From TrEMBL:
Transmembrane annotation, as ranges: 35-52, 59-79, 85-105, 136-157, 164-186, 216-236, 248-274, 294-316
Record key words, sorted: Cell membrane, Membrane, Transmembrane, Transmembrane helix
Keyword Zinc: no
Primary location class: membrane
Protein name from the UniProt record: Branched-chain amino acid transport system permease protein
InterPro entries assigned to the protein according to its UniProt record, in alphabetical order: ABC_transp_permease, LivM-like
Membrane topology reported for the UniProt record: Multi-pass membrane protein
Compartment(s) where it occurs, according to its Swiss-Prot or TrEMBL record: Cell membrane
Amino acid sequence: MRNLFSPSRAALLLFFLAAALLPLALDPRGHLIRVAAMVLLFAAMAQSWNIVGGLANQISLGHAAFFGLGAYTSTLLFLKLGVTPWIGMGVGAVVAGGAAALLSIPTFRLKGHYFALATLAFAEVMRVIANSLGDVTGGPVGLSIPFMGSQPALFAFRSVASYYWIILGLLVAVCAVFHLLASGAIGYRLRAVRENEAAAEVAGVDTFRVKLTASVISAALTAVCGTVFAQFTFFFDPDSIFSLSGISVRMAMIAIVGGLGTLGGPLVGALFLIPLEEVANAVLSSQAAGLSQFAFGVILIGAILIQPRGLMAYWLRTPWAKTRRAAATGA
């Protein structure tokens, strides 16, 4: 019973409850609800990345590839064959999961920054391919999804609130998957790999298998986020959907700033970084080109220097969190 009503779970439930009620207090067609939806979407993306980057310490800079595969697969199935994005979402997840499995065969032998560079190269290859296949992908012009009225079966809604609640449901699902992985046997094996891969192998852990499982699940969830992003924005192009800074680095930084490897880290990181970036753009973008991004970068560096373990470290210092950990360890 104490586990069921722990402070961490209570805080998480309160967050999701407040998020579910937020559209009722905002203009359904205003800018703020779109920003709130993007906060939740990037939190889901960062949580998906957190499975590989947080639990297994495999710092990927190529997750934009899986994000773009999800967006392109579902959108092309809809535009070319009339397949509803609800089904295309699943197909995109399978395609991205298969791509992650193929990518894992050569890259899992690499360590540290070599692995990060290999994943970055994969995302860049996908961007070049998407730009080159103009007849299929639209090339640099990108793809536009026509709006034909509110049709829930085709993932089309007039109200931004409808997309918001779908994104919130996606975030809940991704967090549930992360929690099941982190608290299960695979989570313990991934943490063993993160701490000392050689020792984990000696202890009998099939390191390649557990990392492959985490990578496939992470890629599939990221692809689902890509589908939702495409339907929410109605337009994307290769340079934006496969972007290093806009997608790959951003989802990694959200998880790192919030708290790497923690359930609440991506939520806290997204709540901090996405609104901060919006404020910086609104206040400084008109004064000088690039000034808003410079200010955002300075604040980001400061946050990392002040608290390298992420903002969740402040939560772990609270008396109730310390009491919870002591009870769990029997101290």
